[in-house]
Amino acid sequence: MAEKNVIQKKIYLDHGATTPLANEVYREMLDSYQEAYGNASSLHSFGRDASRLIETARERVAKAIHAKPNEIYFTSGGTESNNWAILGIARANKNKGNHIITSTIEHPSILEACKQLEKEGFVVTYIPVDQEGVIDYAELVKAISSKTILISIMAANNEVGTIQPLRAIAELAKAHKICFHTDAVQAIGALEIDVANMGIGAMSISAHKINGPKGVGVLYVKKGIEIQSFMLGGEQEKGLRAGTYNTQAIVGMGKAAELAVSKREENVKTLKNVKRYFLRKVNEVMSNVILNGHPTNRLPGNVNLSFEGVEGESLLMMLDMAGIAVSTGSACASGSAKASHVLLAMGMDEDLAKSSIRFTFGTDITPTEVDYVVEQLRVSVKKLRAISPIRIYKVKGVQ
Ligand SMILES: Cc1ncc(COP(=O)(O)O)c(C=O)c1O
Predict the structure, then answer these.
(1) Residues within a 6 A CB radius of ligand 1
(2) Ligand 1 atom 4: the closest Cα is on which residue?
(3) How high is the pLDDT of residue 9?
(4) pLDDT at 329
(5) Residue pLDDT, tens place only, 274-325
(6) Does some domain include residue 4?
(7) Are residues 213 and 306 in the same domain?
(8) Could you confirm whether 179 is annotated as catalytic?
(9) Which of 23, 102, 246, 277 is the most buried (most CB within 10 A)?
(10) Helix (H) and strand (E) counts for the chain?
(11) Average pLDDT value for residue range 243-249
(12) pLDDT at site 335
């Protein structure tokens, strides 16, 4: 009897959804579980030990983004940071105006917070993007009015990886004395963001996208920006974010931010090579595959492809059976039959949007593993196209 094809190792290509914990982060967290279990707000030595670790983490995050430690607030993750920035800054500044500007391709934690503000009487302008996912800068300029109090545009998109012209947006906001917030959850591991130099007013980060633990993040708030408290209760985080400190997670956040910066150059280089190799191989064996997002100005580890005539979720399941983990659009959109709001905003039709798969690589992938992924892709896409009711109507190669 022929031997079964047993997969030796699973291949994880969903680093955009979350990343594995780095060893260095794990070790520091573990030590802190044993050595600093006190409540960081307690006055005794146990509390002070925990508090010291939190302040070290704060300094590390501040250094990573060129902020001051007293501008760093720990949260439960990117979602909370984004909710807090949008709701907290808008509500605190409503005496100055009621207009917010964001983009059509933001993460749901921004878009849903904006919808909430609309219910409260704020007016929100959603700036469109072009086919490559770049915001329409001219529309942004046009949208600004004397009532605009906040602009929130993400640094890099989680689904298609497109990087936004952050410096230009920050300068525009500064010129109009408007607070600029950016969701840098996906970008921080790939881009150097100097908040002080760029004049960014607020910025969201999440640890689990940069090899840190889940459930912890940061909201950077520039000194002088008015923001309402998000959680009511104790005096933690200068009374703006109540709740007993999750010391161990915060330790992990600090170490992950430090590592993201120290390894950034090397990681970006590795990921760019992986991406180039993967795209070349895909291009060699398949046609009618489209690269979504900006061809060059994009996150190094992100490849979002539309496979014409294929249902994305079926392809995801077939790859999963072959031991390969990918995602359709964002993790939050997976499991639902809806086409990605990002791809639709980029002008893609619904069928093509539903045929899209996001591959987000890690630095440890080998060429042999990439070859295996491409071969599984080729076989799966061929099978799915053979039974597809959708006619392949475009002929385009991978860029
Ligand atoms: C761009 C972006 N913003 C915000 C979030 C939410 O972060 P968290 O998972 O830490 O709540 C994510 C996570 O998918 C993201 O990709």
Answers:
(1) 77-79, 82, 107, 109, 154, 158, 183, 185-186, 206, 208, 217, 331
(2) 78
(3) 73
(4) 63
(5) 999 999 999 999 999 999 999 999 999 999 999 999 999 999 999 999 999 9
(6) no
(7) no
(8) no
(9) 102
(10) 13, 12
(11) 97
(12) 52
Residue 109: pLDDT over 80: yes
Mutating to test ligand 1, I would choose from 154, 185, 253 the residue with most ligand atoms within 8 A of its C-beta, which is 185
Whether residues 217 and 255 fall in one domain? yes
Q: Cα(224) to centroid of ligand 1, in Å?
A: 26
Q: What is the DSSP string of 266-299?
A: HHHHHHHHHHHHHHHHHHHH--SEEEES-SSSB-
Q: Do 122 and 266 touch, CB atoms closer than 8 A?
A: no
Position 389 scores a pLDDT of 73
Dihedral angle of Cα 169, 175, 179, 183, to the nearest 10 degrees: 10
User: From atom 9 of ligand 1, which residue's Cα is the shortest distance away?
Assistant: 78
Q: Is residue 188 part of a domain?
A: yes
Residue 174 and residue 78 share a domain = yes
108 CA to centre of ligand 1 in angstroms: 9
User: Ligand 1 test: best mutation among 104, 182, 209, most atoms within 8 Å of CB?
Assistant: 209
The answer to whether residue 3 scores a pLDDT higher than 80 is no
248 alpha carbon – ligand 1 mean position (Å): 20
Q: 92, 231, 332, 344: which is the annotated catalytic residue?
A: 332
pLDDT at 158 over 90: yes
pTM, rounded to two decimals? 0.94
- Its domain, for residue 371, covers 11-19+264-386
Residues 230 and 297 in one domain: no
Tokens for 181, please give them.
């917030």
The Å distance, Cα 95 to ligand 1 centre, comes to 30
What CA–CA distance (Å, rounded) separates 163 from 135? 10
Verify that 258 and 269 share a domain, yes or no.
no
| Alpha carbons 44 and 42: distance in angstroms, whole number | 6
Number of domains the chain is built from: 2
